Amino acid sequence: MKDLIAYIAKALVDKPEEVVVTEIEGAQTAVIELKVAKDDLGKVIGKQGRTARAMRTILGAASTKIKKRSVLEIIE
Amino acid sequence: METFEFQGKNTEDAIENACRKLNLTRDDIEIEVIEPGSAGIFGLVGGRKARIRVIVSAKEPQPLEKFGPGTVEEIEEDKYAESEQMVEPIFEDKIGANIESPEDKNGLIVAKDALEKILNLIPVEGASVTASQMDGIISLYIEGDKSGLLIGRKGRTLDALQFVVNKIVNKTLEKRTHVVIDSESYRQRRKEFLTQMALQMGSKAKKIKKPVVTNLLYPHDRRIVHLALKDDNELSTKSRGEGLFKKVIIIPKG
């Protein structure tokens, strides 16, 4: 789950080395925190949040597979 | 001679299912309706699925994917050599055949690679990606996602995947390239459905002589509606609304 977001984020940004993804596991919900370089923030959010939404949708599909809920948080 | 049974929402749907599963066109099969099926009250209560029996006369199966002119002959040649793995080699051939420049080839590989990596990380087991390119558009076809997980509700997941892969490809490439991702012919089915809906709404608009409005649609879906009615001189179409989702108004002229 963490690797999935890390891969997508790294492919989208200019500074992949600054991408940090942490996963906080809960009983039912996992929170995935994505941290990128300041200049890359717009790239992972996208116009009208489209990229962020797309990532959340894909994450949602991946979570369905393991019957869990995941939330993606983009940290400033 | 072989017989199969198929189900669907209605007989049309069942026939379509049958054609897709058997990789045959409608002309190649004989259809016998076992049960016509009914939608029930409000499509909720008492709905029954339509069942049909399909009789296949001994004929060579046709390949499932059609990627435009030029592929047919390649398919014919491959069919006899390796009928089991028919689809794969054709796509390989397509990759070789349709390269316009080294950059295009690169884009194809980048797109396929990106999608495969994402699928592996989800993880989707047993899914394979085949890629082809035509007129600058890269088509990726996902095979083996039986559950519809990758399509999602109303194709949302498929659209999200497509959006992300588009971003990745266009970041790597200089030239703008469009990537289309499909799974289980969802896009084809959606297109047929929307075209049908557009035509029905068009005739309704003509009958009642008042504009008819669709529900909120994606840009890609709106395009299909506009295109379906563009040749009808008695109707005009317009998009209405703000943001990503808009409605299409079908207006009768005069």
From TrEMBL, chain A:
One of its GO terms (cellular component) is cytoplasm. Keywords: Cell shape, Cell wall biogenesis/degradation, Chaperone, Cytoplasm, RNA-binding. One of its GO terms (biological process) is peptidoglycan biosynthetic process. One of its GO terms (molecular function) is RNA binding. It holds the Pfam family KH_KhpA-B. The keyword Membrane does not apply. Gene3D superfamilies: 3.30.300.20. It is found in: Cytoplasm. Belongs to the KhpA RNA-binding protein family. Forms a complex with KhpB. A probable RNA chaperone. Forms a complex with KhpB which binds to cellular RNA and controls its expression. Plays a role in peptidoglycan (PG) homeostasis and cell length regulation. This is RNA-binding protein KhpA. It comes from uncultured Desulfobacterium sp. The lineage of its organism: Bacteria, Pseudomonadati, Thermodesulfobacteriota, Desulfobacteria, Desulfobacterales. The gene is khpA.
UniProtKB/TrEMBL annotation, chain B:
InterPro entries: Jag_KH, Jag_N_dom_sf, KH_dom-like_a/b, KhpB, KhpB_N, R3H_dom, R3H_dom_sf, R3H_KhpB. PROSITE patterns: R3H. It comes from the Bacteria. GO terms for cellular component: cytoplasm. Keywords: Cell shape, Cell wall biogenesis/degradation, Chaperone, Cytoplasm, RNA-binding. Forms a complex with KhpA. Belongs to the KhpB RNA-binding protein family. This is RNA-binding protein KhpB.
